[in-house]
């Protein structure tokens, strides 16, 4: 991918809907998805029959041995279209890391190419009950035979390694991470759909939480939840006739590790080096730099990702994010601060896999954030790890 995005600002987000976020929903995931998609279509001022495109990612975001069943534990774009009674011209699912980034790219490209006029993009999350990281393995084969016997498996070990490296390399303290998590929970507590609505977290509560995988504690991890979000996208020309202010897609980028590693072995240098390349692609694609962004929404499925994203995107020098955040640099209530978690993120909403970041960009840039409304014109929504995910640039006016 080289040069500025040819379809920059030619496609816009024009409506949305979000289900309540629950640890376990009282209705099947498919029923929630159909209801949420209908609400998003109506919010965009459209009828279901006008929608001719569906995109999404049906990845089941859960560890352990869980069955994938369409409409129950996952919701594919084709399943959603069928149960809305639509025979779409375009339906596609993104299969990879960075689910929302990939889904947005597919929707934008389909509309820009004329494959569809109105596209519903959805993310439906189901996290079964029980111990989330219970390991059903009886033997470790392949590359995992070298890691599992030593206890190195699952995402907690994956993130604990670079987190420890960062603490040791840059003289950071685990106490500094409290500023990340309490900021996310403060903002999430203000959202009626959030799992943590009305439940902010104090620094004392954070520091008293048990560690799960040194130095990762319980509150450094987003809680597994059930929930659905849906967005409607169309061309900039059609968006002008719809009821809400359009939010334009100005560019996107994704990345994946290139170095051969053992399973889930993510050294800090891989994350920061790969993330710097993801950021370079992003700024080149959108034709801007970090100085143009006033609403960055960094991914925080695990708290250390916030430090990593702030640095690779260029908002902090290398090794300085822990000081920047601890000094109030992302406090959304502080004038002049960088509101990097103003939408609550995953830590403040629940494990909605990048939805909080995309939704906050849409709400703020479309002027629909209500009492939380900020002055912002350019947002960035990040998803997953900087070296194993992606980001999308949104704008309230064509760049």
Task: Using brief descriptors, characterize the structure shown.
399 residues, alpha/beta, Peroxisomal Thiolase, Chain A, domain 1, two-stranded antiparallel ribbon, globular
Q: Biggest sheet, strands in spatial order?
A: 3-2-4-7-1-8-11-10-9
Low-confidence stretches: none
| Molecular shape | globular
Rg estimate, integer Å: 20 Å
Alpha plus pi helix count:
12
> Count the strands?
11
In percent terms, what proportion of residues is strand?
A: 15-25%
Work out the helicity level: 25-40%
Secondary-structure-derived class: alpha/beta
Under the CATH scheme, the architecture is 3-Layer(aba) Sandwich
CATH class: Alpha Beta
What is the H/E string? EHEHEHEHHHEEEHEHEHHHHEE
Total number of distinct structural domains: 1
Task: Characterize the main sheet.
Answer: 9 strands, mixed
Organism: Nocardia aurantia
Domain Thiolase C-terminal: 277-381
GO molecular function, one term: acyltransferase activity, transferring groups other than amino-acyl groups
Pfam family, one: Thiolase_C_1
Word description of this protein:
With 399 residues, the chain is an alpha/beta fold. It has one domain (11-128, 223-395): Thiolase/Chalcone synthase (Peroxisomal Thiolase, Chain A, domain 1, 3-Layer(aba) Sandwich). Helix content is 31%, strand content 15%. It is built from 12 helices and 11 strands. The protein has helices at residues 29-43, 77-83, 99-112, 154-170, 178-188, 203-208, 236-239, 268-286, 304-312, 321-326, 345-349, 355-365, and strands spanning 11-18, 53-56, 90-93, 118-125, 211-213, 216-217, 227-235, 247-254, 295-297, 378-383, 390-395. Strands 3-2-4-7-1-8-11-10-9 form a 9-stranded mixed beta sheet, sandwiched between helices. A two-stranded antiparallel ribbon has the order 5-6. A hairpin with a 6-residue loop joins β10 and β11 (390-395). The longest helix has 19 residues, at 268-286. The radius of gyration is 20 Å and the shape is globular. 54% of the residues are buried. The mean pLDDT is 93.
């Amino acid at each position: 991918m080289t040069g500025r995005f040819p379809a920059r600002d030619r496609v816009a987000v024009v409506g949305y809907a979000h289900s309540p976020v629950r640890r376990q929903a009282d209705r099947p995931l498919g029923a929630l998805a159909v209801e949420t998609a209908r609400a998003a279509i109506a919010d965009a001022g459209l009828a279901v029959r006008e929608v001719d495109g569906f995109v999404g990612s049906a990845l089941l975001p859960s560890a352990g041995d869980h069955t994938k069943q369409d409409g129950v534990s996952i919701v594919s774009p084709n399943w959603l279209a069928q149960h809305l009674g639509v025979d779409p011209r375009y339906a596609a699912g993104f299969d990879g890391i960075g689910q929302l980034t990939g889904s947005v790219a597919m929707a934008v490209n389909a509309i820009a190419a004329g494959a569809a006029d109105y596209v519903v993009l959805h993310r439906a999350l189901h996290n079964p009950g029980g111990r989330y990281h219970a390991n059903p393995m009886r033997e470790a084969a392949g590359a995992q035979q070298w890691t599992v016997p030593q206890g190195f498996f699952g995402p907690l070990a994956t993130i604990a390694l670079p987190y420890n490296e960062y603490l040791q390399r840059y003289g950071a303290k685990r106490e500094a991470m409290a500023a990340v998590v309490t900021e996310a929970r403060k903002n999430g507590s203000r959202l009626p759909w959030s799992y943590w609505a009305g439940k902010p977290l104090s620094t004392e509560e954070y520091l008293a939480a048990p560690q799960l995988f040194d130095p990762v504690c319980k509150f450094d991890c987003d809680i597994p939840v059930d929930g659905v979000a849906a967005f409607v996208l169309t061309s900039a020309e059609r968006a002008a006739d719809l009821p809400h202010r359009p939010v334009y897609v100005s560019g996107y980028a994704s990345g994946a590790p290139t170095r051969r590693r053992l399973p889930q072995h993510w050294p800090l240098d891989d994350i920061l080096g790969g993330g710097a390349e993801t950021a370079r692609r992003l700024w080149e694609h959108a034709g801007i730099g970090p100085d143009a962004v006033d609403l960055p929404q960094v991914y925080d499925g695990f708290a250390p990702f916030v430090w990593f994203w702030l640095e690779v995107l260029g908002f902090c020098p290398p090794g300085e994010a822990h000081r920047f955040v601890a000094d109030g640099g992302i406090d959304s209530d502080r004038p002049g601060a960088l509101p990097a978690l103003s939408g609550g993120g995953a830590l403040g909403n629940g494990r909605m896999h990048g939805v909080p970041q995309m939704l906050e960009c849409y709400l703020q840039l479309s002027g629909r954030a209500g009492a939380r409304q900020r002055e912002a014109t350019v947002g960035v929504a990040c998803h997953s790890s900087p070296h194993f995910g992606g980001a999308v640039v949104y704008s309230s006016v064509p760049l």
